[in-house]
């Protein structure tokens, strides 16, 4: 059975249609003294470890927009297929859309071929797409999965480079996390030990890096299935306020009030009995 | 149609060829004498007290230099200054202020009042108008009558007396909240109760908890200096460390 072309390749050469448009828009915006909106980055710590029974992926849950925390509980471990999950660091929209696109394409492939996709296939599709866009898509991904050939962990950089290693960390907190991983990683670890190692790596990223914070998510992928633990560990900092800040109704002043009655007429009336037994 | 015409004119130059939008020659990288070390300061003036509070995190880029670097400095028995911005300039500026306070004390046989310190700081800052101290200052203390006073500055010395002011990286998040809770702005039919010390301290703690939630440069711990006619009392409260 011939496999239909799952990932459609665009016309030959690189497509720079939008570049001239962007330059013109920037010119228009500057003239109006407004700045182009800054994309939301995840400023993250993500890590992955291959253990004896599968792959353990971990991520923090803070998304920053410049120096402001935009989301305190964002999900950075994305679903790709029943046997593969992907952590994403970099521009939030890019990681979301890239992993969604990959997931859709792999679903079509599974339906066409009747097979579970292999991790190498996912990695190759990602690499193709990111390289085609020459780094304009700011997505650094850690892809982990279990397939018929074994447990795999890959990283794909924004320019399209890949690396296949037993332990990884990416994002702005990657050096902090990598310190923990380099110290305590051993090949063929037990599952519980691997989970603790990933949790500690993400925790060190959260404490040392300003772009990472809040809670820790863990995703464990084994041959038997996937255990997506969100959150694996909640942040120990509870924001307990000393005073209550409730406003009595009427505190906000109403300047004008306009009531527009809607002209409604009954066209049809039906009665449906509900079974409330 | 007009939009396309404008876009065309901006992308294609007068001679019809596409304008260069990528500088492709050598780039000169300049050394920047400044760096931003983060931190937030806050000062509130009451009837007979003043509070100056700051977080204690010193950061640079995405890293943390220190979790215990408070930004409030005691100047006299009745005045505390909070400085945030570039830490190097904060240290030098406080040294200069300390020296000038000593000189004044020796010449005039009395300590400088809060108002006098504020006026002096303004001239010190403006003296460096063309290579400014990258510091956001807020002075909190008691004036000659014993009432609370807050003076807020910009990096080149413009200042004014306030009832409350937030400065530093999370100032844009804190100032509206203070406007509402202390200044009773945007509220109807609410009793304008004067601020007492206990309520002010609680408010300051709550407001910093909120700032630490959403600003990456604020956190670790909160140092509160309460200035009353009895003296200066310090209190430290932990904040988020992540």
Automatic annotation (TrEMBL), chain A:
Which residue positions are annotated as catalytic? 44
- What's in the keyword line of the UniProt record? Cytoplasm, Hydrolase, Nucleus, Protease, Proteasome, Threonine protease
The segment(s) forming the Proteasome beta subunit C-terminal domain are 240-271
Write down the SUPFAM superfamilies for this protein, in alphabetical order. N-terminal nucleophile aminohydrolases (Ntn hydrolases) (SSF56235)
- Tell me which PANTHER family the record gives: METALLOPROTEASE TLDD, PROTEASOME SUBUNIT BETA
Protein name per its UniProtKB record? Proteasome subunit beta
User: What does the subunit section of this Swiss-Prot or TrEMBL entry state?
Assistant: Component of the proteasome complex.
Give the protein's function.
Answer: The proteasome is a multicatalytic proteinase complex which is characterized by its ability to cleave peptides with Arg, Phe, Tyr, Leu, and Glu adjacent to the leaving group at neutral or slightly basic pH. The proteasome has an ATP-dependent proteolytic activity. This subunit is involved in antigen processing to generate class I binding peptides.
Q: Which family does it belong to?
A: Belongs to the peptidase T1B family.
> What Gene Ontology molecular-function terms does this entry list?
threonine-type endopeptidase activity
Q: Which gene encodes it?
A: psmb13a
- One annotated Gene Ontology cellular component of this protein: proteasome core complex
Q: What reactions does this protein catalyze?
A: Cleavage of peptide bonds with very broad specificity
Leader peptide range in chain numbering: none
UniProtKB/TrEMBL annotation, chain B:
Pfam families tied to this protein: Proteasome (PF00227)
Does 4Fe-4S appear among the keywords? no
One Gene Ontology cellular component term attached to this UniProt record is: nucleus
Q: Which GO terms describe its biological process?
A: proteolysis involved in protein catabolic process
Domain of life of the native organism: Eukaryota
User: What are the protein's UniProt keywords?
Assistant: Cytoplasm, Nucleus, Proteasome
Q: What is its main location?
A: cytoplasm
- Describe the task this protein carries out: Component of the proteasome, a multicatalytic proteinase complex which is characterized by its ability to cleave peptides with Arg, Phe, Tyr, Leu, and Glu adjacent to the leaving group at neutral or slightly basic pH. The proteasome has an ATP-dependent proteolytic activity.
> What is the annotated quaternary arrangement, including any partners?
Component of the proteasome complex.
Per its record, how is this protein called by name? Proteasome subunit beta
Whose protein is this, by species? Oncorhynchus kisutch
Identify the taxonomic lineage of the organism of origin: Eukaryota, Metazoa, Chordata, Craniata, Vertebrata
What is the name of the gene encoding this protein?
A: PSMB1
